[in-house]
Amino acid sequence: MSFSTMIHAKQRRRGVRNATLALLVTPILALAPALAASPAGAAQNENLTFTVTPVAIGGVTIGTTGTGQSIVDNTGTSPIYFVSAHPNSSDKGAEFNGSAGTCTSAVAPGGTCAVGVSFTPNDKGLRSSTLGVIFATHNAKGKPNGYAKVDATLSGTGLAPSFTLGYADFGTVAVGQIGSTDAVITNTSSVALTIQHLYLQGGGKTLFAASDSACTAAIAPGAMCDIAMTFTPKRVGAAQATLSVAMSIPGTKASHVLEQATVTGIGTPKGTGSGPAFTLSTLNIGLVTVGTSGSGAVAFTNTSTSSETIGTDTITRDGAQAFAITGSTCGTSVASGASCSITVTYTPPAPLLESADLVVTTVNGSKPAGSEMTAISGTGVAPSFTLSAPTYPSTAVGASSDGQVTVTNTSLVPITFHDAVFQGADQSSWALSASACSAALPPSGTCSLDVTFAPRSQGTLGVTLTATFDITVGSHTTNVIEKVALTGNATLPPVSLTAPTFAPAAPGAAVTGTATLTNNSSGTVTFEKAVIGAGTGSLSAPGHFTVTQNTCTTSLTAGASCTITVQFLDKKTVAESPTATLRVVAAVGGTNPVEMVSTSVGLAAQDTGTPAA
């Protein structure tokens, strides 16, 4: 861009003079009128109309960026052009951003494009805002001559980074000796993390010590770091504490993330090395559905030459809350060489592998005689359900068909519907119209999701429906996700009608435009009538439009077309853009009609308000 300006200087006295010229250049876009957002996601500005879809980006880790799209649908009668997409002012708006996406060229009437949206959360929790999307129409010279704005609702959830903290098990350590091991930190998130602080809690915390001297630098994604641990037992028996580690993202104000791990050890009599006089078998309970329980037995075998009296049996380590001792055949004393069993029950709160330790201590009178520890484990599996896809009939563009996706709960616990979303390039042709899955779905129960197929274009259209159901155990909610592919065949309507276009007209000057009627069926179509009706917006003026010529007087064979000429005449000396509707009625089936069909297009013209010279 270039321009020039002229500067005039008037000399009042001799000598050198200095001055500064400041030019303020305003982009032409800034001269566009301030636009208020239209309600319900639909812009209305005379002949310029479009809709946008909401954007739910989902969970995004703090410090990273997630993306989404808002589908723009041109519901007007003229091509529209992208102007801008910016978050509106709000406390969370700065975490969202908009871009042109695929809307880089003209969007034809009935066409769609996708505005890009990005989300970079600064902290955890739900975020929401609105995106002001502005499009414009162009005049014959390609210059904007009308603007409209609509707000797309935005949402996303900031997710805290994650890491795992391994437990520390010292096994047996003689009283007065020092045992050592490591608790391993693994950064499982996509951003680097640093340790804010660590500390020990619990009844045995004074017997353990922890140091993060090897973890002073930021831990990269996927990297590990060792917390050095020591155990110094002061008495015989099992000891336990909880190690807590808090980590955060360097350079952010986001809240820290806390993880905890169990630290265990067993103190044995000073100077003895023979160990306990009994053994414990390991136990793997196997697969258990979340919300149910499974159990197994640990065998206690007395390997000494005298009877053993069991003092205590406890479960320790990270997964201890999912396990419980629910029975025992050991009584108060186990004879030499004899065995008994301790029953352990596993109730998984989430679908994951969990493990813990069962610690058994024998006593001699009131004093501990020996302790032994064995591993117990179980795997929680998520509930399951299936989705069955409906079969849709061939559906004309502009029409719709309904179908039901059947949900069957194939698990052993009730599940609750959470949401259903569509994904794919054709998602604008599908909608969830109703759900009969509002109540908890019992085992083997079924419910249905009503899905409407309303094609926007011709051909075989497909979409993926992702359904999410929940199960809550205590304070933990597990999401169960299944997907199903939906397809539909979209055909052209029996007849289609293209909208005429009109050149700008001076008051009193008539201009014409041509609408084309096409037979898309395989049979014969007979024209019945063409009617001018009310238009859209505040300037509906059907009286300014007249059908002046019609070549649709004979039957149309398959694939044939004819034209209808419409005249626009406005005598007002006021610049305005009147609208109307052209509706055509035809009979499909030739001389013995089997179906009467109608199709409509909008009419939009422009009165310049300036009389012709």
Overview of the molecule:
This protein is mainly β and 613 residues long. Helices cover 0% and strands 54% of the residues. It is built from no helices and 40 strands. The chain has a five-stranded antiparallel β-sheet, with no helix packed on it. The chain is elongated and about 120 Å long. The two termini are 34 Å apart.
User: What gap, in angstroms, lies between the N and C termini?
Assistant: 34 Å
Largest sheet, order of strands side by side?
Answer: 1-2-4-7-6
Measured by DSSP, the beta-strand proportion falls in over 45%
Q: How many DSSP H or I helices?
A: 0
Q: What's the Cα radius of gyration?
A: 38 Å
CATH architecture of the largest domain, by name, is Sandwich
> Any idea of the CATH class of the largest domain?
Mainly Beta
What helical percentage do the residues reach?
Answer: under 10%
| Count of discrete structural domains | 5
Main sheet summary: 5 strands, antiparallel
Give the oligomeric state. single chain
Could you give the count of β-strands?
40
Shape: elongated
List the helices and strands and how they pair.
Layout: E1 42-45, E2 48-52, E3 55-61, E4 66-74, E5 81-87, E6 96-99, E7 112-119, E8 125-138, E9 144-159, E10 163-165, E11 168-174, E12 179-187, E13 194-201, E14 208-211, E15 224-231, E16 237-248, E17 257-268, E18 278-280, E19 283-289, E20 294-302, E21 309-316, E22 323-328, E23 339-346, E24 353-364, E25 367-381, E26 385-388, E27 395-396, E28 401-409, E29 416-423, E30 430-435, E31 446-453, E32 459-473, E33 476-491, E34 495-497, E35 511-519, E36 525-534, E37 545-550, E38 561-568, E39 579-588, E40 595-604
